[in-house]
Design a protein that fits this description.
- With 404 residues, the protein is α+β, with helices and mostly antiparallel strands.
- It contains twelve helices and eleven strands.
- The strands form two sheets. Strands 3, 4, 5, 6, 7, 8 and 9 form a seven-stranded mixed sheet that branches. It has a four-stranded antiparallel sheet with strand order 2-10-1-11.
- The relative contact order is 0.19.
């Protein structure tokens, strides 16, 4: 089919052609970036924790003085261990997808010249490492004498386990065992590596990553109290948590139970990613609405042009054009308009992505989203124009030539 007559016809309808092309360009830019955002959110929601989520819950209490910490810990732990079905009860300062009390910036040298990043230090008492379900894949496991009492915010020194993702970041290509990192003047020596341990806020942006965490063994005390890790069979964990909440009122009536923070780890994960799910659904709605508006615009314009060209269509039919020729004419015309819009839309997609990168710290838009968006819009354009094109192809030559 000759393209030149189609381009000549489009030049006679510059404004309408331009408006549809701009609509398609906007749709292309929004479609590519919205799909990218949805994919990012879905990927973030699938982050693995590295812990035995289905079997874990946390109990959070507050409202007590530091001088009461040892007594509160003893009463709560005894009460938890007395509940039927509890396999383990221990003190853990930070909770995956929940409370975080160990986010710090670390250095890889004592002089503080080499910044390692923002990491999460999980401080846990005896039994917490086993309850989390972490396994040492290199180095040695923690021993009883690694759990030392401390008085400040963190232990002044400790033998720690580090997540592999963090060790690969701090010492790429080197053996991390025996390496030391610093938090201010406090030093921590890596004695073992665990496969993975997610930070409480895995979607935290900036100089951090979801697996940048380490486990610091410590004896519970004034600065490590009120946050408890409970382990039970997955089928029992919900009932065990309910009993634990009731237990607090009996064994520690002077403490305040944090109802919102005391959840199973699975529920904490669901709550943590609730906003991501809402955003993904909203973006899907935006995409559907935008594509619907774009399709209606194409249908409206094509229908208008068919009505305007009835006489021309009839003449072409009378001189030998088949229905297939008329159908291909409108489909080719639409393909050219959509292609022009897509070309502009790709530039707009990158511009929009640059704005999102600047203001929301999003990653760069991968190139493969552009052909995916183009194919989607080409398919949409062909489907949208199909109805008007079929009506044009069905115009009888005699009716067309007699029309005003």
């Amino acid at each position: 089919m000759e393209i030149q007559p189609i381009l000549a016809a489009l030049r006679k309808h510059r404004l309408a052609t331009l408006l549809i092309a701009l609509e398609i360009a906007l749709a292309c830019a929004v479609l590519c970036n919205a799909c990218f955002l949805i994919a990012n959110r879905l990927q973030a929601m699938q982050v693995r924790s590295g812990v035995d989520e289905a079997a874990l819950a946390t109990l959070q209490i507050s409202g007590f003085e530091n001088s009461q910490a040892n007594d509160i810990n003893a009463r709560i732990l005894a009460g938890l261990r007395a509940i039927s079905g509890v396999q383990s009860a221990s003190v853990l300062n930070s909770i995956p997808f929940g409370e975080h009390r160990g986010r710090v910036g670390i250095m890889t040298d004592a002089e503080g010249k080499h910044f390692g990043g923002v990491v999460e230090l999980y401080m846990g008492g005896p039994g917490s490492l086993e309850a989390l379900g972490l396994h040492v894949v290199a180095g040695r496991p923690l021993q009883a004498d690694d759990y030392q009492p401390f008085e400040g915010v963190f232990p002044t020194s400790a033998s720690v386990l580090m997540a592999r993702e963090l060790s690969d970041h701090l010492w790429p290509g080197a053996d991390p065992l025996g390496k030391t990192f610093w938090v201010d003047k406090w030093s921590y020596r890596v004695v073992g590596i665990v496969d993975y341990l997610v930070t409480p806020y895995p979607s935290y942006a900036g100089r951090s990553a979801p697996g940048w965490s380490a486990f610091v063994p410590a004896q519970p005390g004034p600065m490590m109290a009120g946050s408890y890790l409970i382990k039970a069979a997955p089928a029992d964990i919900g009932r065990v948590l309910r009993d634990a909440r009731e237990m607090v009122a009996k064994v520690a009536p002077d403490a305040v139970l944090d109802q919102e923070g005391s959840q199973t780890i699975s529920d904490l994960r669901n709550q943590f990613f609730q906003q991501d799910r809402i955003m993904a659904f909203m973006l899907v709605g935006v995409i559907v609405a935008l594509l619907l508006v774009t399709a209606l615009g194409i249908v409206g314009l094509a229908s208008f042009w068919v009505q305007q060209r009835r006489k021309q269509i009839g003449i072409r039919r009378a001189i030998g054009a088949t229905r297939g020729d008329i159908l291909r004419y409108f489909q080719t015309e639409n393909f050219l308009i959509v292609s022009g819009g897509i070309a502009l839309g790709m530039v707009m997609a990158f511009a929009l992505n640059l704005a999102l990168m600047k203001f929301y710290e999003l990653p760069h838009l991968p190139l493969y989203y552009l052909p995916v968006g183009a194919i989607a819009l080409w398919a949409l354009g062909q489907l949208a124009v199909l109805g008007p094109a079929l009506r044009a192809a069905a115009v009888p030559p005699v009716v067309a030539t007699r029309s005003g």
